[in-house]
Amino acid sequence: MRNRLSKSSLLKLLIIVPLTLDNIVLSMANPDGHHHHRRTARKIHLPRAIDASRKFVCREPQTRAYNLRDLMQNVQQNPGESAIQPVYIILKRCDGHSGCCMSPDKSCSPVDTSIYYEEMEIEIWSLETNGTRRQWIKVEQHGKCACEVNTSDDRNLLDYQQPNVTLI
């Protein structure tokens, strides 16, 4: 019986000591005591990169999230009112990140005839009434994308262009 206890204690000791040493080594490597996991860089060879860009073709608008308060800054509202819900609105957009074009002189842009508007109900908070009310807005959506000749300035403008929003 005593021999079994000795073997059990020895086994526990053999498990605890390496774990303790491992923790000591890790804490010495990171003085703040936090574990930092670094991801190793993954290499993507040229043929695979070209294939990926060919598969991500500029055609379908991509989903983008916009902060409603930011979008409403350019909309005429009553003084002391602020849009509060939804916090973000999700729109379909064509921009320089919506798909790939096979020419460096082209970028993904909305097809003019595919631009449409959707009506969306939002909630507005009023300082004057100290309450909320609902309001309908019209937001610009893109229905189809295509590659168009653009300059670098055009691409930057398109990437940062806010969707049109109007009160109904």
From TrEMBL:
<feature type="domain" description="Platelet-derived growth factor (PDGF) family profile">
    <location>
        <begin position="45"/>
        <end position="152"/>
    </location>
</feature>
<dbReference type="InterPro" id="IPR029034">
    <property type="entry name" value="Cystine-knot_cytokine"/>
</dbReference>
<dbReference type="Pfam" id="PF00341">
    <property type="entry name" value="PDGF"/>
</dbReference>
<dbReference type="GO" id="GO:0008083">
    <property type="term" value="F:growth factor activity"/>
</dbReference>
<dbReference type="GO" id="GO:0016020">
    <property type="term" value="C:membrane"/>
</dbReference>
<protein>
    <recommendedName>
        <fullName>Platelet-derived growth factor (PDGF) family profile domain-containing protein</fullName>
    </recommendedName>
</protein>
<dbReference type="GO" id="GO:0035099">
    <property type="term" value="P:hemocyte migration"/>
</dbReference>
<keyword id="KW-0732">Signal</keyword>
<dbReference type="InterPro" id="IPR000072">
    <property type="entry name" value="PDGF/VEGF_dom"/>
</dbReference>
<feature type="signal peptide">
    <location>
        <begin position="1"/>
        <end position="29"/>
    </location>
</feature>
